[in-house]
Design a protein that fits this description.
The complex is a heterodimer of chains A (243) and B (259). Chain A is an alpha/beta fold. Chain A is built from 7 helices and 9 strands, in the order βββαββαααβαβαββα. Chain B has 259 residues and is an all-alpha fold. Chain B is built from 10 helices and no strands. Classes of the chains: A alpha/beta (243), B mainly alpha (259).
Chain lengths: 243, 259
């Protein structure tokens, strides 16, 4: 399978301080890869470096994606725009490359389970879960080939988090999206991922774990011995990373 | 969003009635010299007698304040756009904006009158000088302090400078502009009255500042009190109108004017 991301010797400094040093990463097309690690270890910086949002240096930096999309920890919606206009934004910004069409906007909105009645609402009129759905719709509207997600469900309650986990899994599976996902939640990482990278405090990937679970994920999976075993395994490695 | 309730209006009005009644009674009891402190009824009678003159003066002052306000908001926004788009321009000019703000307006007013002559033009310039600073600082803040997540989002979709300005920085600056405009609106009346006090107007263009000046010179204390009251009411009206405009514009946004 072709690599969507192929990076070696990646170095990132923020404000003169090295955050990532000599890091290598290969992600095949269509894979859901999660990154876990202690707070401040550089998970989000890695995501931003791959998405070209922070300055970086590397020996090799090959990416095979044209249309990236990012879902941030906060929904980062524009408060002066309605749901419709927020979802429309990426198309407006890339008008030279993409046609601004209502069909794609409606499709993205229905994909994340928002109702037509919500389209004219402003972000402040929506719940936290709905705002995150709008943020996801905005990411999906350009039909991306890679999705970066930086702890998007961290602020949501457990039930809503599980609902949005399922929704994200189904969308990424159906669209065959390469997904790079940062989370603190090991259960979430195991449930969603085919592969988990564990980072330590120094910003080094200390474990690269393949998750041997069925490709199809459904809520029942969370009670199976294989799933629980995988959660224990990742937790153990994470504890080692934090030690 | 803040809504006024009857208690918030009723209590200050009742307090005013108590103060005015106390003032009237105290005057009857102690018989203050009229030249020092006329009682509320005397002020009301004099204001009524000069109603037409004072109304015209209020319109003149209001027009000067409104003209200066529009110039302040427009020019202040243009300057803020310059400051936010060029660090060099900001470094060169911003210290002088602060300097301009720290110089007392009564010290600048005579210079303005020398340059622009007496009359409405000078008053408008004085109003602009006193009221532009809150607009410049607030709009500059609004244009430069955008949500980092939204800035990254724009960067991800390779937004150009014009798109960054039009779709992110300008809308982000609107609540800040309205906050600045509200502070500025209150200052415009101060500027107009100081300008009229020092520059005066032509015979047909006498503002409240002129009546304050004449009232103090001719010991017409009732006119002085009435002019102070009218300029205060004008100031309140300017601030209220700006607040109303802000609330109407931002009613469904997440921002508030107090942010």
């Amino acid at each position: 399978m072709k690599n969507s991301i192929d990076i070696s010797s990646l170095n990132v400094k923020l404000g003169g301080t090295p955050v990532l040093q000599n890091l290598s990463l290969q992600i095949p097309e269509g894979q859901w890869c999660s990154i876990v690690g202690p707070s401040g270890c550089g998970k989000s910086t890695l995501l931003r470096a791959v998405a070209n949002l922070v300055p970086r240096e590397s020996e090799k930096f090959e990416t095979n994606f044209e249309t990236p999309a990012f879902v941030f920890q906060d929904p980062t919606l524009m408060p002066w725009r309605t749901v419709w206009d927020n979802v429309r934004l990426p198309m407006e910004l890339q008008a030279s490359r993409l046609e601004v069409d209502s069909k794609s906007i409606l499709s993205a909105i229905s994909m994340v389970g928002l109702a037509k009645a919500d389209l004219e609402k402003y972000p402040r009129e929506l719940s936290g879960g709905m705002r995150m759905r709008v943020s996801m719709a905005r990411a999906l509207v350009t039909r991306p080939d890679i999705l970066f997600m930086d702890e998007p469900f961290a602020a949501l309650d457990e039930l809503l988090r599980q609902q949005l986990n399922q929704l994200s899994h189904e969308i990424c599976r159906d669209q065959q999206l390469t997904t790079l996902f940062v989370t603190h939640n090991v259960s979430e990482a195991v449930y969603l991922s085919e592969r988990i990278l564990v980072m330590n405090d120094s910003g080094v990937i200390i474990e690269d774990l393949q998750i041997a679970l069925p490709k199809e994920r459904s809520p029942e999976l969370r009670t199976t011995p294989d799933y629980l075993q995988s959660v224990q395994l990742v937790t153990r490695h994470l504890q080692e990373a934090m030690a | 969003m803040r809504h006024w309730n009857s208690r918030q209006i009723l209590l200050p009005v009742m307090f005013l009635i108590v103060v005015l009644t106390g003032w009237q009674l105290a005057d009857q009891l102690f018989e203050f010299k009229r030249i020092i402190l006329p009682n509320p009824l005397e002020i009301a009678q004099e204001s009524w007698a000069r109603g037409s003159q004072l109304f015209q003066a209020t319109l003149v002052t209001g027009r000067a304040a409104m003209t200066g306000f529009v110039i302040s908001v427009s020019l202040g926004t243009i300057l803020a756009l310059l400051f936010s788009s060029s660090a060099l321009v900001k470094a060169c000019m911003y210290p002088y904006m602060i300097l301009l703000q720290t110089v007392p307006i009564v010290a600048i007013a005579p210079l303005v009158i020398i340059w622009f002559g007496g009359g409405l033009g000078s008053v408008v310039v004085i109003v602009t000088v006193i009221s532009i600073f809150p607009v410049v600082t607030n709009v500059t803040t609004g244009l430069t302090t955008v949500d980092p997540g939204l800035a990254e989002l724009m960067q991800l979709y390779q937004a150009n400078r014009f798109q960054m300005l039009l779709k992110l920085r300008l809308p982000n600056a609107i609540p800040h502009l309205l906050t600045g405009a509200r502070v500025s609106a209150g200052l415009t009346i101060v500027g107009a009255v100081v300008g009229e006090y020092m520059a005066g107007h032509g015979i047909s263009q006498r503002g409240l500042g002129y009546y304050i000046f004449m009232g103090s010179q001719n010991h017409q204390v009732e006119v002085l009190y009435a002019s102070i009251l009218l300029s205060t009411l004008l100031g309140i009206m300017m601030v209220a109108l700006t607040s109303l405009l802000g609330r109407t514009l931002l009613s469904r946004w997440a921002f508030s004017l107090h942010q």
